[in-house]
Design a protein that fits this description.
Structural class: mainly alpha
Main location: cytoplasm
Distance between the termini: 27 Å
InterPro entries: Bcl-2-like_sf (IPR036834), BID (IPR010479)
Helix content: 55-70%
Shape: globular
Largest sheet: none
Order of helices and strands: HHHHHHHHH
Protein name: BH3-interacting domain death agonist
Number of helices: 9
Mean pLDDT: 76
Strand content: under 5%
Subcellular location: Cytoplasm; Mitochondrion outer membrane
Number of strands: 0
Keywords: Apoptosis, Cytoplasm, Membrane, Mitochondrion, Mitochondrion outer membrane
Number of domains: 1
Radius of gyration: 16 Å
Low-confidence stretches: 1-11, 46-66, 76-82
Length: 194
């Protein structure tokens, strides 16, 4: 799949991000649970009514926080018109996620560890409305540090680095998954300034 050619015509960030997180895998057991919860609530790509009743109890005994549910409801209206509704688009999202993983693998472990630690600290010290700015700063720093990234289209590299940075932060702090997922999807909405 030529991801450079298809990037502009593929606005399904929510599905691509979910596919990326699932394909990349999780080391942290709590993050795996959070990712399963997120997957159940989004139920991409065919169910557009993916937000269910208030504070339901999950199979692992945890209840979903109302603030996360409200965040997902808020993003549902912005993301829902972009969601794919057929198997072909879902397959394209999985292929694009695999390409983003290949790009993200350019990051040296040391560089990614430093960026992850820095972003985790910034997120823990700031209010959620500033998270997109911190995430953007972290991604821009990675873009400057990784020489091999220049051979790919800038938008794809930015998306790959954003996804992998988000995933690594969530490995350290799994409870950030729902909020960072929403932040990242909002960040990549068409016509949104970065």
């Amino acid at each position: 799949m030529d991801c450079n050619r298809n990037f502009e015509n593929f606005p399904h960030t929510s599905l691509v991000l979910l596919s990326f997180l699932q394909q990349k895998g999780c080391q942290n057991i709590e993050l795996k649970r959070e990712l399963n919860d997120l997957d159940e609530h989004l139920n991409l790509p065919t169910n557009h009514n993916y937000i269910e009743g208030d504070d339901e109890l999950q199979a692992d005994g945890h209840s979903i926080s109302l603030s996360y549910r409200e965040l997902l409801l808020e993003f549902q209206h912005e993301v829902q018109p972009q969601l794919p509704v057929n198997a072909e688009e879902a397959h394209a999202a999985r292929e694009m996620a695999a390409e983003l993983i290949r790009i993200a693998d350019l990051l040296e472990h040391r560089v990614l560890s430093q960026a992850t630690d820095s972003l985790t600290k910034k997120l823990s010290r700031s209010q959620e409305q500033f998270w997109a700015g911190h995430l953007s700063d972290g991604v821009q720093a990675l873009l400057r540090q990784v020489a091999g990234a220049k051979e790919f289209k800038k938008e794809l590299v930015e998306m790959a680095f954003t996804f992998v940075l988000m995933k690594n932060v969530c490995e350290h702090v799994p409870e950030y998954l729902f909020r960072l997922y929403g932040t990242v999807v909002q960040y990549f909405l068409p016509n949104r300034s970065h």
